[in-house]
Amino acid sequence: MRFVIVTGLSGAGKTQAIRSLEDLGYFCVDNLPPTLIPKFAEACYQTEGRINKIAVVVDIRGGEFFDDLFESLKYIKNQGYKYEILFLNASDEVLVKRFKESRRKHPLAPDGRILNGILLERNRLREVRDRASNIIDTSNFSTMKLREEITKIYGEKDQIENQLIITVVSFGFKYGIPLDSDLVFDVRFLPNPYYIPELKEYSGNDSQVVDYVMSYDVTKKFIEKLEDMLEFLIPNYIKEGKRQLIVAIGCTGGRHRSVAITNDIYEKLKDKGHRVNRDHRDIQQDTYKDGRKL
């Protein structure tokens, strides 16, 4: 089990860090009072591996409870529970700028100067900083750069090598474009099996429909160009820190052409080692048997 305690200076990026850990599959809790850490750790370890990656944010917002942190850490260590401390740091100048830009009050200087609050917090966190397993200075970090650093330290090998999850979705335009789509492709220009009586009741999952759709040169050319476009876009999306890509492929009803194309693209992306899912959203909407709609 990996138990990560995220702490550090206010404004140094703890919120972004916990979001990145959540994306990596960690069970995350924000602003957990340190007095509850032993009970929480015990509950997680009792899941017998069902919850094996945990991250909790503990910081100065806990007020007087924060002073219980070291006692709690001593207790869980004595119980044989392993933990890591991730400390987020940044320069005074950067922290002041971030607070001014966000118009937030510093928790230790709600009615005073931001810098005074930062200095008080830095002094109060000195001991926990000295105990940290990992320290990340975010002074010159963008959100994307921080995410990359978190992934490098706390991600699994496959998460580090390929952080992007691709979902290829087939849909019918008559039922609306998927709201979460990043890329939408319209394949209604392809020959439609719906108008072939012996194919109408089948779907793009059936070999009869697949053979029909794929028999046309225009289909092969479209798939070739789409594959080429995706191979260009994917590494650039990863470079910019994108974690999910939804590729929607639509035909009229979402049962024949879009399903066949989605399956083909899914297999091609999978064969190239991408993390990919598929979803045939509307495949059951227009179902036919003996020429009649069910």
Summarize the structure.
With 294 residues, the protein is of the alpha/beta class.
Describe this structure in words.
Keywords: ATP-binding, GTP-binding, Nucleotide-binding. It comes from Clostridium malenominatum. InterPro entries: P-loop_NTPase, RapZ-like, RapZ-like_N, RapZ_C. This protein is α/β, with parallel strands linked by helices. The chain folds into 2 domains: 159 residues, P-loop containing nucleotide triphosphate hydrolases (Rossmann fold, 3-Layer(aba) Sandwich), CATH 3.40.50; 129 residues, no CATH class. It is 40% helix and 19% strand. It has a 5-stranded parallel sheet, with helices on one face. A 4-stranded parallel sheet has the order 7-8-6-9, with helices on one face. Strand 10 and strand 11 form a beta hairpin. Helix 1 packs across helix 7 and helix 4 crosses helix 5. The protein starts with a strand and ends with a strand. The relative contact order is 0.13.
